[in-house]
Write a structure and sequence with these properties.
The complex is a heterodimer of chains A (405) and B (140).
Chain A lengths: L1 E3 H35 L15 H11 L10 H17 L9 E4 L2 E2 L11 E3 L1 E4 L9 H21 L3 H32 L4 H10 L3 H4 L1 H14 L11 H4 L9 H25 L17 H29 L5 H28 L5 H18 L25
Parallel strand pairs in A: 1-4
Antiparallel strand pairs in A: 2-5, 3-4
Chain B lengths: L9 H5 L7 H24 L6 H4 L19 H26 L7 H27 L6
Helix pairs in contact in B: 4-5
Classes of the chains: A mainly alpha (405), B mainly alpha (140).
Chain lengths: 405, 140
């Protein structure tokens, strides 16, 4: 029996990254609480284990032992389906991330004494160190992001609770709106690299320049959009606790609630990994320095470590953003998506198309395009019709601040 | 001679490379299994107690008023329709963008490609301006 090297590597990557990401999610929650504490000048969790390091285990145990309660008024099957629909896209989204680049795999034969697979020959050949090596690449990211909306909608509707319903509807509208800038920015990246394969996109950046230098505006738009897609602050309107208690997961308890929570952090890891791949040059360490190619297993591990380091930095950045910026108002959120991000990303797409057609696809031309669009938008902004002021005060009888005329 | 098997899954019949997608199926199975196991686990481990107060809808401690299955604002529907239009248009652009770099930039075909795509984007811009003018993006 023979199997291809790609099959073996796929299985290993799935087994390793799935478990690593589950552990990372648990510790992201601890990190989030620690960063929150540091931002607010507190100590944070420090009771369970040294420096609170066993806190995730304690939390997990507690959540498993909580009562798994399905209230009587909910639509039971949809209520149970919603957490699955949220967690599954979050856990499969990283399938196309090229963790270790291309590995020139040496073939070998499994020892005879191993049960079931003994004597199987693994054919030598170049493999992509990612869970799946297919040509659709970034389209998969879009597809999985689209599926993520269903869980939130279902959870909000099935709970049969007004808070949940409002939270679900808000979250749906928000996630749909921010999917369009993501799609357009991925198109811009696709035009730069000419392919959807993430490993080729990274290679293109290694050979020319990181996309964040060539397209800083696109990177900012994409980062904003992934924050909104993951329902992270400052875009966590769906669970604005002052208005909606818990939003779409108000009626959920125990691990069913924890699956929603898990999905948010899992989504952050996936989104950061994809951001690092398409903008931060994947496994490339410094943007202006050429990098020696390290071959073999050591090279793969090194690339994985560099990419993981970038992902960790991005996650910390997301957390600091969460504890620094106040939450947007809902109309501000929608204005940002539809009246700012979508037109700018459209301009970027048209500009990149025309410049690629004219052969000006070097990174400095693209940087000039980004700066030009930024200045143009800044210049046009005062002349865009504003409409009525949105922050109206209600006139009140006998009020000093907004008196009824 | 290559004889096609009697039953070929539809994706395989369309494209033999579709077999490369099997790790996604494996990953999906693991993820679904994880979700189901966690939900069964917490159902077994946790206590089970119920009561009339606990069965009611949570409304900040007040007795629930009316049902949650009500009409909601139509602007969410308008927004969803607008999203659908733009998202489908973006998906149309992906095959074009993939092949665009492979065409000789000086050829007439490249010019035609660019002009057609600009016309296509122009139609979207008209739709976008119409939606803006109609107040689809107003959420205040």
């Amino acid at each position: 029996m023979t199997i291809t090297a790609q099959a073996l590597v796929s299985i290993i990557v799935i087994a390793v990254v799935f478990n690593v990401s589950l552990g990372a999610v648990a510790y992201c929650i601890l990190l989030e609480r620690k960063i929150c504490a540091w931002v607010q000048d507190r100590i944070g969790p420090n009771r369970v284990g040294p420096m609170g390091l066993f806190q995730p285990l304690a939390d997990g145990l507690k959540l498993f032992l909580k009562e798994d309660y399905n209230p009587g008024h909910v639509d039971k099957w949809l209520f149970l389906l919603a957490p699955c629909f949220v967690i599954v896209p979050a856990l499969v989204g990283w399938a196309i991330v090229p963790w270790g680049g291309v590995w020139d795999f040496q073939g070998f034969i499994f020892w005879e004494w191993i049960p079931f697979i003994g004597g199987t020959e693994v054919v030598a050949g170049p493999v992509n160190v990612s869970a799946v090596s297919v040509s659709i690449g970034l389209v998969y990211v879009l597809a999985v992001g689209g599926v993520g909306v269903y869980g939130v909608t279902l959870g909000g509707w099935a709970s049969n609770n007004k808070y949940s319903f409002l939270g679900g509807v808000r979250a749906t509208a928000q996630m749909l709106s921010y999917e369009i800038p993501i799609g357009v920015i991925l198109l811009v990246i696709l035009l730069m690299a000419g392919t959807l394969r993430p490993d080729v996109i990274v290679q293109h950046q290694v050979e020319t320049m990181w996309n964040i230098v060539a397209h800083p505006l696109a990177a900012v738009i994409y980062f904003t959009a992934i924050l909104a897609e993951a329902n992270r602050a400052p875009f966590d309107l769906a669970e604005a606790e002052q208005e909606l208690i818990g939003g779409f997961h108000t009626e959920y308890a125990s691990m069913k609630w924890a699956l929603f929570f898990f999905a948010e952090y899992s989504h952050m890891i996936t989104a950061s990994a994809i951001f690092a791949v398409i903008f931060l040059g994947g496994w490339h360490v410094f943007p202006f320095v050429p990098q020696a190619e390290v071959s073999g297993l050591f090279g793969v591990l090194l690339k994985f470590a560099i990419l993981a380091g970038k992902v960790a930095l991005l996650i910390v950045f997301m957390m600091v953003v969460r504890w620094t910026l106040p939450r947007f108002r809902y109309d501000q959120l929608m204005n940002l998506a539809w009246k700012i991000l979508i037109p700018i990303s459209g301009l970027l797409l048209v500009g990149t198309t025309l410049m690629t057609w004219k052969g000006l696809d070097q990174w400095w031309w693209m940087l000039a395009l980004n700066i030009a669009i930024f200045i143009a938008v800044w210049g046009i902004q005062p002349f865009v019709p504003k409409g009525d002021p949105t922050n109206r005060k209600l006139p009140l009888e006998g009020s000093r601040f907004s008196p009824a005329e | 001679m290559h004889v096609p098997p009697l039953f070929t899954p539809l994706p395989l019949a369309i494209d033999p490379v579709a077999f490369n997608y099997w790790p996604i199926v494996l990953l999906l199975t693991i993820a679904v299994g994880f979700a189901v196991l966690v939900m069964i686990g917490t159902h077994i481990l946790g206590p089970q107690r119920t009561g009339p107060e606990k069965e009611t809808t949570y409304e900040s401690g007040v007795n629930p008023v009316d049902t949650a299955r009500k009409r909601f604002n139509v602007r969410y529907y308008l927004l969803a329709m607008t999203f659908l239009v733009f998202d489908v248009e973006i998906i149309f652009l992906y095959p074009w963008a993939t092949t665009f770099r492979q065409i000789d930039a000086d050829s007439q075909l490249a010019t035609m490609f660019v002009c057609r795509i600009l016309f296509f984007l122009l139609t979207s811009v008209i739709a976008y301006a119409y939606a803006w003018r109609k107040g689809v993006f107003r959420f205040d």
